[in-house]
Amino acid sequence: MPPRLAGAAALLLAGLWAGSAAATVLQLVPIPVELAAGDSSAVLTIGNRGSEPVQLQIRSFVWTQEDGEDRLVPTRELVVSPPIAEIGPGQSLSARLVRTQPLPVRAEQSYRVWIDELPRAADEGGAQRALRMLMRYSVPVFVGTPRSAGPAPLEWRLQAGAASRLWAENRGGRRERVSALSLAPLAGPAAAQTVAEGLAGYVLAGQQRAWTLAAPVEAGSRYRLRFRTEAGEQEAELAAVPAP
Question: 216: how many CB neighbours lie within 10 A of its CB?
Fold first, then answer.
């Protein structure tokens, strides 16, 4: 089954391993990575700011959105060189992202690059081992963003029901980054609810993203949505509609 993202966070915890207690700290530049329609490659610089060497596996995925959720499928359209690397403390690696089919694109294409820290031999004996966190970094990559494209227009829909959902549809030619989502009823005693305090995620070009609400909304009731995009603070009034 293709992997799915739980959100659009740039840094995800992948697991724990019995090893050195020192944590790895990676610095990634740039985020996101952008390639113009005619570009065949880009460079992602990975710096190790920790005190120990780190071994990495780097993979690429096509990134789409289905039924409001992020979906990742392994791809050879965008390959990363090197796919396996070791970076010493205080050192950096220039990972090259290469398009294998550098044809003109009509609309922005979206990818994700996963950078997984790999287990390594412990420096200390078994009795002295501590828990070591293995990190996964998920980097967004966008290809062919229209040069004249401004912030993408989003159309919002509020779906009532036991599992109420807030939908955003992006009919523009580039992605839109959404954060600070909150929803408040225009009338009645119900309190406002925070949908996402910080980064809520991306709504990809020509696609839809959905968020499940912590508290259900009532069909026919009206709500005020507040959110932030690259264009700044925004708000919209929505009437909750019954689930199909």
Answer: 13
SS3 50: coil
Of 97, 124, 113, the C-alpha closest to 26 is 113
Phi-psi region of 25 (alpha: psi -120 to 50; beta: other; left: phi over 0): beta
For residue range 166-206, list pLDDT tens digits in order.
999 999 889 999 999 999 999 877 788 999 999 999 999 99
Paired tokens of 232: 């700044």
Print burial letters for 115-143: b (CB count within 10 Å at least 16), e (below 16). bbbeebeeeeeeeeeeebebbebbbbbbb
Four-point Cα dihedral 178, 181, 186, 191, nearest 10: 170
Contact 173, 152 (CB under 8 A): yes
Of residues 200, 208, 209, the one with CA closest to residue 229: 200
Distance CA 95, CA 179 (A): 29
- What is the rounded distance in angstroms from the CA atom of residue 64 to the CA atom of residue 145? 16
Cα 187 to chain center, whole Å?
A: 34
Full-model pTM:
0.85
Provide the 10 A C-beta neighbour count for residue 242: 9
Residue 46, judged by CB atoms within 10 A of its CB (0-12, 13-18, 19+), counts as buried
